[in-house]
Amino acid sequence: MRRKVTIQSIADFTGLSKFAVSRALSGKPGVSSQTRDTIFKAAGQLGYFKDSKSAQTPGELVDLDARKWSGTVLVLFPNIRYQNPESLYWGPVFSGISSRLNQRGINVLTLTEPKDDSMFSLLNPEAIMGVITVGSISTPILVEIRSLGIPVMMVDHSDPSFHCDSIFTDNPSSMKEMMNFVINKGYRDYQFLGNIRDAHSFYERFLVFRAALEDNDIELKQIPSLNGPEIDNFRETFAAAITEHGLPEVFVCANDIYALFAMETFEFMGMAIPDTLVFTGFDNTHPSIPFLATVNVNKELLGTRAVDQLLWRILNPGTSYEKTLIQADVIIRD
């Protein structure tokens, strides 16, 4: 039988004091935000939050059409540049969310992730029927949402400290299909381009990229700075890497935007892109970029299905959490 996870066991795991762990988990001041994040992540990995949640026994399942809907759903965006309703990726996702809620007669309230929990103290749980998080929301904010007791649905994000329903593009399947196509074209020298810590999907795509090379006996010669560049200093990081190490045959990009940034950096450096260099993308947000291949994600459907699952969760709170995968289509270009 699994042992109960205690504050002391979290302290032992992190090497921090029991006092610091206790204050972080209770939301009290006295610990830095970095230490708080470390404690939350460790607690999630050890299963502390599973212990804190009482078990529920599901009853008979209830269909969405079993009731007439009304009320308000909060759509929470991260406080991160490029992840907002105006972006080429998240905009269509939000459109799918809002359209589906409108079909059900439910109001939409949008909020950018606050830097502290002050905004949530103003929210009335009785007035919000559910929360849909769009993109990477920080662990402390998720834990604060948990205290409100409101059902949550995550789009394109997961967190070991916060268990709830989630929906993703089927990254592994589509990435594997695209990598097999490129490898069969005869290319042997690859670099993954994109910060794998920015999004769970980016990390999944990198894992499949790495596995595909290994399966085909291709050496992984990944330049660490290229799968960890921050968008705000991408130009400097990318330029330094290719100046020192040279160019691969293929840049496998975490998404189309990283490929666009790379091409703009070549122009900034006064370098022509060699005919021997090719790019693959993901998300199909920039059709004009000359990719060898990219992946078309049905972004509106991600939003639509996120709403459906949230409403289903409201009606069926005692069932196990679900992770939904939406198939994507690999697009081959000449």
Report what the structure shows.
It is a single chain. With 334 residues, the chain is α/β, with parallel strands linked by helices. It is 41% helix and 15% strand. It is built from 12 helices and 11 strands. The protein has helices spanning 7-14, 18-25, 33-46, 48-52, 90-103, 118-121, 139-148, 171-184, 200-215, 234-245, 256-269, 299-315; strands at residues 72-77, 107-112, 130-134, 152-155, 165-169, 190-193, 250-253, 278-280, 293-296, 323-326, 329-332. It has a 6-stranded parallel beta sheet, with helices on one face. The protein has a 3-stranded parallel beta sheet with strand order 6-7-8. A two-stranded antiparallel sheet has the order 9-11. Helix 11 (256-269) links the parallel strand 7 and strand 8. Helix 1 (7-14) packs across helix 3. It is globular, with a radius of gyration of 22 Å. It starts with 6 loop residues before the first helix and ends with a strand. Residues 51-58 have low confidence and may be disordered.
Secondary structure elements and pairings:
Elements: H1 7-14, H2 18-25, H3 33-46, H4 48-52, E1 72-77, H5 90-103, E2 107-112, H6 118-121, E3 130-134, H7 139-148, E4 152-155, E5 165-169, H8 171-184, E6 190-193, H9 200-215, H10 234-245, E7 250-253, H11 256-269, E8 278-280, E9 293-296, H12 299-315, E10 323-326, E11 329-332
Parallel strand pairs: 1-2, 1-3, 3-4, 4-5, 5-10, 6-7, 7-8
Antiparallel strand pairs: 9-11
